Amino acid sequence: MRPDTPADHADHTAEAERLLRTAAQYPEDQEPLYLQAAAHLELSGDRARAATLYDHLLAKAPDNPPLVKALKAANLWEYGHEAEARAIIDGIRAASPREAAPWEIIAEALESHDELHAAHDTFTAALTLLTDPSEEIPYGARSLVTGRHRVRRLLGLPHDDWDMVADTMHAGPIPLDELHDPKRLWALGSDNPAELQAEIARLRAELGTYRTALSRPFPVAMLHWPEDELRELLTAYPALTTEYPTHAAHLTAIESSLRDLSSTGTQNLGTVRGTVPSYEAFAASESASPADASLLPQYATTLAARGRATPWPPPRNAPCWCGSGNPYRDCHGTPDVP
Length: 338
What we know:
This protein is mainly alpha-helical. It is built from 16 helices and 3 strands. The protein has 3 domains: 12-172, Serine Threonine Protein Phosphatase 5, Tetratricopeptide repeat (Alpha Horseshoe), CATH 1.25.40.10; 173-216; 220-330, no CATH class. Strands 1-2-3 form a 3-stranded mixed beta sheet, sandwiched between helices. Helix 3 runs antiparallel to helix 4 (65-78) and helix 6 runs parallel beside helix 8. It is globular.
């Protein structure tokens, strides 16, 4: 399920217009606002206009090009541009993005158009790239495991190791095998009250899972200052040196805090990148001084609420969140590396 799915009861056209007006006021948040606006336009039936928003973002070098391309491909296929959509999907697969969301979107697009073998291969390729079988599945990749399980049930394939993982992760009252049973389609045409009642129970359980995903709060996010931004911040506001004695210590503190939160069971963790102009604008909106250290966690929370968070931990082979360019496993993903 795409991460920006709006509520069904919204006036989608009006909500899209509101988001576009907000994007004009806050250009630094244009990308997440445009993506949400495009989702509303798709639900309103205005897929052509949604496509123009995706094109606009791609022309401006978005923060997450694979995600925008995946959403564009799914949208194009829905209104008849199958060849172009397939070309984009092939390009995304070839590029092997290191985030789960683009993979999930293109796999579900293939699945919704009965390209089940291609969807299965896409889910499998994503999991092979983004996860390590010997470690816990990253929070952002869990929906890939569930989606692959669903497609394998539709294909009638036997359970494998990833399906076992999906069963273990599933916490609902009705087993995942039952929720993903293709025979359920036949139950919808039954005149047996017991069968219909059982199907209603399954649908309620499935709806509860989707509602949980959609109502999931934005990540618990740690504020990350790139080295040049931190240098500028401390030059302008020396009082914050007590919070950030060195850039290396800042990075170590982020990783340590995230690991501590994870060890206590906190999920949906992430990092948000700070910039000095954005932070100063936030401080002005709070009628406070940027030198006030108590603003820092509020600033991080605000960035996360605006969709600026990057999930933590990244896959072990993906670039580290700190921006070093090294794989996470060789950087902050190694416990004894500061």
